[in-house]
Amino acid sequence: MNILERFNETDALLEGHFVLSSGLHSPRYLQCALALQDPANAAEFGRLIAERFFGQQFDAVASPAIGGLVIGFATAQSLGVRFIWTERENGAMKLRRGFSVKNGERILVVEDVITTGGSTRECIAALESRGARVAAAASIVDRSNGVADVGVPRISLVSLDVPSYKPEECPLCEAGIEAIKPGSRTVAAK
Ligand SMILES: [Zn+2]
């Protein structure tokens, strides 16, 4: 399966000139959730991640909410293990909802997109502070050019460069190309 094709079909990846929610401009817009709204895509991506760990045993998959929830669930389903997640409480990433881990349990942490690796690292720290052992991490997309270090071996299904510019330094603005806010009617009507 061509992952980028699935992204294109669902408008999860757009090419052009975009104003991101951060206010920065980019020639690409990536919104993984749009690809994952089709359960068949989510199941397939989860299966592909699980395949990359063929021969390894995990006791659970864990994800940082919200971005990791759908793909984490799909990966856990494919591996046949339970799925738990961490979420923020007063800014700190924690296991809540009565989720627990046993001492030494071997966990795979799954996220949708890795940019700096920050939320994956926080998720790993939360699990390890409770005695679990995070053996590996995975994401559908790597936006870090492979450099994000989460402290454990890490894989991703696809690597994508999404450059961003301050509006005043944007080469697309300079070229006089109109900037679009993704999710606007213009994009939806395409
Ligand atoms: Zn621009």
Structural class determined from secondary elements:
alpha/beta
Strand order of the largest sheet: 5-4-3-6-7-8
> What is the strand tally?
8
- Unreliable residue runs: none
- Please, how many helices? 7
Order of helices and strands: HEEHHEHEEEHEEHH
Write the topology of this structure.
Layout (H helix, E strand, L loop, with lengths): L2 H7 L3 E7 L5 E6 L1 H5 L2 H13 L8 E5 L4 H11 L2 E8 L2 E4 L10 E9 L3 H11 L4 E10 L11 E6 L11 H4 L10 H5 L1
Parallel strand pairs: 3-4, 3-6, 6-7, 7-8
Antiparallel strand pairs: 1-2, 4-5
The structure holds zinc ion.
The site of zinc ion has 7 residues, from helix 6.
Quick structural summary:
The chain is an alpha/beta fold and 190 residues long. The chain has seven helices and eight strands, in the order H-E-E-H-H-E-H-E-E-E-H-E-E-H-H.
Keywords:
single chain, 190 residues, alpha/beta, 6-stranded mixed beta sheet, 29% helix, binds zinc ion
What does this structure look like?
This protein has 190 residues and is α/β, with parallel strands linked by helices. It is built from 7 helices and 8 strands. The strands form 2 sheets. The protein has a 6-stranded mixed sheet, with helices on both faces. A hairpin with a 5-residue loop joins strand 1 (13-19) and strand 2 (25-30). The chain is globular and about 60 Å long. The two termini are 25 Å apart. The model has no long low-confidence stretch (mean pLDDT 94). Zinc ion (ZN) binds next to helix 6.
